Amino acid sequence: MNQILVYADSLSWGIIPGTRNRLPFHERWPGVMEGELLRKEWSVRVIEDCLNGRRTVWEDPLKPGRNGLVGIEQRIEVNSPLSLVILFLGANDFQSVHRTTARQSAQGVAALVAAIRRAPIECGMPMPEIMLVAPPPIKQAKGDIASKFEAAELKSVGLADAISDVANHLDCDFLDAGVVVTTSNVDGVHLDVDQHRLLGVAIAARVVSILERSE
C-alpha cells in the first residue's frame, strides 16, 4: 500500500469559488488523483491534510494555526509509512497582510521540505519522496476575498520558477500547476471543478513515475 500525504491549502481542500462550500472528495483533485491511480491498479491511499488559509511558514495574524511549518514533522510521524508527500502551498503567502516575495515563499517551501526530512519517523520506515506543486498564477481577486488577496497577482509573479529552483536544489519532484490549470474567473484564486479534474489527472501521471522509480 502506497500512502500519499497531500499537505496543502484551500486549492486542494476544494473550496468552491465564490462560496464557502466544498467539492466532494471525488471531484477535488486529490480524489481525482486517487481514482486515477486505482484505475491504473496502483495500491494507494490518499491522505488529505488541506487547511484553508495555510501559509508556508508565516502566521495568519487573525486566525491561528495557518503556519504550515508548525506541526508538520508530527504529521509525517502520525501518517507514516508514507511513499510520497505532495506539498502544494504558496498562494496564501501573498495575502495582503504579508509583504512576501516569490523567492521568500519558495524558501518557505524549502523549510517545509527540511522539516519533512527531519521528521522523527520510526526506525525502518522509509523517508517519503517529495513532490512540490507550484500554484497556478493568481488573477486579480474578486468577491469576498478581493481585499484579502489585494495585489497578490503582482506579488506572486515568479513563484513557479522559484519553487522549481528549490525542487532542483533539494532533489524533489516538481509540477507547475499553472501549466495544467488556471484559477477561477469567479474569485481569481481557487479552482473550478473542471480544473480540479485536469490537475488530478496530471498529478496522478507524475505520481506513477515516482512510484515506479521507488519500486
Quote the beta fraction.
5-15%
Strand order of the largest sheet: 2-1-3-4-5
What are the low-pLDDT stretches, counting only 5+ consecutive residues below 50?
A: none
Write the CATH architecture name: 3-Layer(aba) Sandwich
The name of the CATH superfamily reads: SGNH hydrolase
Into which percent range does the helicity of residues fall?
Answer: 25-40%
Order of helices and strands: EHHEHEHEHHEH
Number of helical segments? 7
**Structure class:** alpha/beta
Mean pLDDT: 97
Give the class-level CATH name: Alpha Beta
As for the CATH topology, it is: Rossmann fold
Number of domains: 1
- Number of β-strand runs: 5
The coarse silhouette is: globular
* Largest sheet: number of strands, sense, barrel closure: 5 strands, parallel
* Rg, alpha carbons: 16 Å
Structure report:
It contains seven helices and five strands. It is α/β, with parallel strands linked by helices and 215 residues long. The protein has one domain (2-214): 3-Layer(aba) Sandwich (Rossmann fold). α2 crosses α7 (193-214) and α4 (102-117) runs parallel beside α6 (159-170). The chain is globular, with a radius of gyration of 16 Å.
Could you provide a short overview of the structure?
The chain has 215 residues and is of the alpha/beta class. Helices cover 36% and strands 13% of the residues.
Structural topology:
Layout: E1 2-8, H1 10-13, H2 29-39, E2 44-50, H3 72-79, E3 84-88, H4 102-117, E4 129-134, H5 152-155, H6 159-170, E5 173-176, H7 193-214
Helix pairs in contact: 2-7, 4-6
